[in-house]
Amino acid sequence: MSHALFEKIYVEKNAASDPETLRILERIGCKDPEYIAHYKDVFDIKGSSGRALILAHNPGKHLYEGAPVCQSFGNEHFYYSPGVMNCIYDCEYCFLKGMYPGRDICIFTDIEETFSELEALGKQFPVYVCASYNTDLNALESITGFAYKWCKEAYDHESISVELRTKCSRTDIFEGLPVSERAIFAFTLSPDEVAERFEKGTPGLDARIQAVNAAMKAGFPVRLCFDPMIYFRNWQDSYTEMIGKVAKSVDLSKVRDISIGSFRISDQYLKNMRRKMPDSEVVQYPYVCEDGYYQYPEKVRTRMEDHIRNLLKAKCPEVSVYDWK
What we know:
By secondary structure, the protein is α/β, with parallel strands linked by helices.
């Protein structure tokens, strides 16, 4: 049985009777999935050109401490959840291409285990968790319903804050989600040239701006993420035009905060990506490696980040702007 997004549907045998598994299969109209012993029997196979959906149990940790190249936004206890692995979007520069061998998406249906682990941490200290670190939950909401669950978790627990990072342009989901100041929607905004060249399958800037306004209208705190910035011949004009359009279309005084940062990635992920994409302009750029992470040479990244920081300072001086350093 296939689905519009997936060529095949697999279910791990030990996840077959999970309520979440059954709900997802019903949502996608799949009555005869292929059952497997372990998600890695399918997920780790290299070279497949198609995309499969795998429903499984998470055999490891449900929460991990945030990586050094990710922004914590001043939160001392910063975690991320690998509850869904891989993304329906095909961004050329995405670290997931260096982390995972193919395009398959694996959904761990034992999400209540994640929440139990999270709530135990929340009894010790305030927790800030990135729920869509390895995927885009907004883009998968009609399949998983996990954005709702994460918003509900934040709504129910004063010590838990959740960030859902997205490039999705859906505007219809926000009115049905539990609203709280602790459920933050973080929108990655890119110039149209970046979206067209390097973010295959993603909505353009105008569509993402509509989603930003829909989230704000529904009452959610919104973070704007101009991160990662990508260097290309016309980068300065493109990013200038983008900031102008965003400032004209979004009430920046109501934005929670803003994130900026140029492209950076772990050395091993980039090495994997370079083997896979020998002709990619963004992947094959001559980055410099510092402390195990590839990034633009200091002169380039400083120029890019200073440029967008100065544009934002002129447009919305009262809004907090974070960078990844």
